[in-house]
Amino acid sequence: MKIFQKLMLFVVLTAMASCSEDFVNVVNPGALAPSQYPASVSDLEQLLTGVYATQHASGLYGHTMLAKNLFLWDHTTDLSWQGTPTWIQMGQNNSQPNDSFLYDTWRELWRGVQRSNALLAGIETYRQKAPQDGAAIDQIKGQALFLRAWYYFYLTSIWGEGFNAGTEGGKMGVPIITEVAIGLDQTQVPRKTVKESWDFIISDLKTAETLLAGVNWTGATDKYKVSGWAVKGFLGKIYAYQADWANAKTYLADVITKSGKSLTTFDVYKDMFNGKNEFTSESLFELNLNVDMTSRGGDDQSMGSSLGMVIAPTYVADNGGQAASAWSNVFPHAKNIARFGFAEGHYFKPGTTSANIANVDPAYITRSLDARKKQTVDPRLWVACYQPYVDSMIVSGKKRPISHYLDVSETDMEAWSFRKFTNPLGTEAEINMANGANIPWLRLADIYLLYAETLSHSGDNAMALEYINKVKRRAYGLPVNAPSGIDYKSLTGLTKASDAVLKNDPLKYERWAELFGEGHWWLDVRRWQIGDKEAAYYQRIRGGTIQWEATDYAQPIPINEVTANVNMKQNAGY
């Protein structure tokens, strides 16, 4: 029996055992019962694996949450595919309550909560049978609490009517559910406040911190598990997000000075998102994925992710035109290319009317290669993206140039392809839509930048600037801890970006550039309340003009949930 199936069976059995006789009376002598399962630490580990697996379920990192939700809200992407109206509206910051992609994410996050709750109940049942296994049980419980906090983190961040518990704490957050429902009435749960939602998340993580104190998984088969340092890093991230600078400083400094983590070299970093260099020296927590030739990646039954199918590069076909390497639905928004400092013009010669490699301007190639060599453009552009007609990928064992992206007019925009979380050695279809590239969800560069932000709010601008520069130096292949010629001189120094949001804000620029395409920028946009400025910068997507309203920070509760839960109130503006 697959692990997730055992987990779901345990959920059902737990509920049945708690029901009154008039609710259900089913006898199956061949089935597992709560008195029989879990019956060992190994059983608890199996259930825990199912809770981890939910992170890459279809609605989450297995398919939808990045490329079909977060990337559209913060304009990491533009849409090549124009056949789904609600998806276009999402890219216009006009999400709809009936959007199926949004519902997928909502559903899978609650599935993660449900599975966490079922495991936590099983833990306490088993603890009574085997108190001698207390240490192992505590480690499993600590991981389960971290994961439940992780699911609630996204529920609150995406659907909380407000974000900051201090300034918006009284607004609507999300329902808090800590037990498996045993009847319909227990599914009719009203929303707690934003403050109550964040307090609950922090409470779970504080308990996990105690249970996982000193735990650092080093075995080859255990590296994906939550460590004590992952918990501290997550807490530091949340405190910074909530502008609780005192607590943020304590936790982030602890990770930086005591965890033993360090930034990798640039050569390691640039391939850290493509199935290579996993669990590096800067990784605190990453979603562990593997190529799966037996099951589609957009499902938690699979060991991989189909994210790469959605963002798949396009390449030059035999006729010199474009070919999709998979679904190839989205590409980096053209404004992002300029934000990295790329200003080398268009790849096609003036007057081009046909997107064919024969019409590429040779001078463009020369300028582009020179910009890379001289680092006049942020090197992270080519970590995150493939450049048309300059970069290449492998298709059926043959090296093919990256092409101008599909369906985009020849002169309309710079239509590059994504590199992060794609397979450089073959197309996604060749690996059965199940990409095995790990997703480094929490890493030291993120911690450094959050710490810099915290220091800037704590009166230590000099040290804040140093931690920003550490991240920048690595991006340029320089020693992290030594002053360099590319260092920012102040917290308002010039960046590679030329727009009003990032031009004179190294902290914001470095978070945008360093973490580009990793799913963090939308939460930064939300907590800094710069959605209107970002919308003004990006202006439009291929489907139409971006339409920004103040209520767009909080996404609409899916209509399915509003219909099913009589106590569920919709967010303002929908």
TrEMBL record:
InterPro entries: SusD-like_N (IPR033985), SusD_RagB_dom (IPR012944), TPR-like_helical_dom_sf (IPR011990)
Location within or outside the cell: Cell outer membrane
Range of residues in the leader sequence: 1-17
GO CC entries: cell outer membrane
Keyword terms of this UniProt record: Cell outer membrane, Membrane, Signal
Presence of keyword Signal: yes
Claim: Flavoprotein is one of the keywords in the record: no
Major subcellular site: membrane
Gene3D superfamilies in the record: 1.25.40.390
Organism domain of life: Bacteria
Domain SusD-like N-terminal: 40-239
Residue intervals of the RagB/SusD domain: 282-574
Family, as annotated: Belongs to the SusD family.
Protein name as annotated: RagB/SusD family nutrient uptake outer membrane protein
Organism: Dyadobacter chenwenxiniae
